[in-house]
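Subject: for your reference before the review

Hello V.,

The reviewers asked for a structural picture of the protein, and I figured it would be easier to keep everything in one thread rather than splitting it across files. Below is the amino acid sequence we used in the manuscript, unchanged from the supplementary table.
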Amino acid sequence: MNRYAFSISVLISVMVAFSPLAVWQVFMGDPLYDSLIGPSFGELPVLKAGRVMPVSSASADVLKSLGGKASASTSDGKISSSKWLWRLSAEAGGLSSEKIMRTDNRDLQKILGVEGRYYSYDDLAKHYGQVEKAAASDGNAELAAACAEALEKGVAYATAVNSFAVKVPGQKSAVKGIEDWRAAVEEASEELKSAKEKNRAPEESKLARAAAMLSYYRDVAGFENAYPDASINSINTGSGYATPAEVMLDRKASDMSVNLAKLYARACDAIAGGDREAAHAALVEINGILSKSGGVSWLRLKVENFANAMSPFFGGFILYMFALAAFGLSRIFSTRGEALKLAGSVFMASAAGLQILGIILRMYIQMRPPVTNLYSSLVFTGAVAAGIGVYIYLKKKYLSVGVAASICGLMSLLVAINLPYSGDTMGMMRAVLNSNFWLTAHVVTIMVGYCGIFLAGFIAQARLVSNIFSRGNFGALTGDTAKTVYAVLCFALMFTFGGTMLGGIWADMSWGRFWGWDPKENGALMTVLWTAVTIHAKCMRLCSDRIFLGLAVVGNIVAAWAWFGVNLMGVGLHAYGFIDGGWFWFFLFIASQVLTLPLCFYKYREIPENAGGEAAKKI
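And here is what came back from the structure prediction:
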């Protein structure tokens, strides 16, 4: 073993793994909002879309829905999502001119009067009427969809403004607003009581202020209730979570929720005034109340906050690219080939480790099995495929296996990162999926089978491509690779078949029938049948090793259709798995597999060592 190459590659892996954390803490993070050691505003618990999470997750979710990024670029520079959300709530309209919303539709850009993809809430509000009209129009479907999406972003922004405090228009202080509301309610109550005792009509002037504030708070609360998934419930009531507007309207609000509402208002005022000491003091008091009340899993909040900062999937993505680069360079620079292969194996193993770490953290945060939605299925399948590939590579030292394992991990993270935004990736599931047992028994089982199919397909593809660049007789390597692919496909068939049968049992329990020829069910059946055909062809020696590898590559196409193709169709009972768009990338992947298939007919003709030598072998 080249100890120098090993040490350098380990050091690089560690640096890449912790680089997002270092960037977060040193360059973009603010200790008041993003500290991972002491108390921070980003660590406070809130309820969003049915899940309790730290502010850092809720704020990142809002920003992703607006512009696709988990941070905000403002006139003061790039800031974390937590700081952006607190400033938004503290300064109300102070950030409304920042261009953080994104659209790729050029017609919508013209309506909003902006140059480029980004626009502000003020831009949307100024042209709201035109955007609303275009969203309801039947003339241009793409523009209508873009405008509808822009309106949804406006809703997300408007609800986020009142996340931690509510200010009646004209009020500059959130604390003063609470005091004015209490005074107005007390004044109105006394006037109504006095009017009743004296049997007279109440004076409207003494009721007007309370009526105006009541109307505003009801409008805010009604707006939040109309869009529950967009609203951030930040006030812990002891029995759940509520928005500041709901606490203001609740006559029977607990003392804890009232005190927390005041403290959140104090924090907002301090942030708006730039008083960091006062903001920190309010934060300490909030933490004290929440710690005494119980019911808050601080460890889980800290773990999720840490995972947000570390971003293990991003580190894994970078290391997979490093691994592919090292493996590729090992073929070019033969004198350094062994050292580069060693570095590639370290990068690959480290990337798989980071991906598995990210999955473990998600499981702890959710208290769920590793696969709960399309996003988690991607990262899980890639991690398992990469992990198995690392094991096979370390055992057999086949470069094609290392390349295939790295591609599996890289592509899974690449697709997961670029999935169309559909909300919190750890959000609450549909009722039919809300079963830890069946999520483990069916979903995890069949996804392990899919990972085996893709790993086998990519190993086969890497071998077929490598044959073209082979400097010698590649027959032995092709045969050994075929044996490896055969073993992986047997593993995959066992899990895909078992997962499909378990899915039928689950369907019978949930929908009253074992099999309904649903597109997703048909896709799973296609995968099982094609894998069985491929294994049968090899076992019965119906084809050469090269053709067998080609059949394994076709398995990638079949599995991709079963996994993604039926989702793109948008039909069937598996509505929780639908995704919008993506046909172009799906067919691009299919094309990449199809273009590999002719390589299975590529043969190596051995040149005889002497004129009387044995005829060349055809492999």
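For the response letter, the relevant points are probably these. Residues 607-619 have pLDDT under 50 and may be disordered. Strands lie at 45-48, 51-54, 71-74, 77-80, 101-102, 118-119, 232-233, 235-236, 241-242.

Happy to draft the paragraph if you're swamped.

O.
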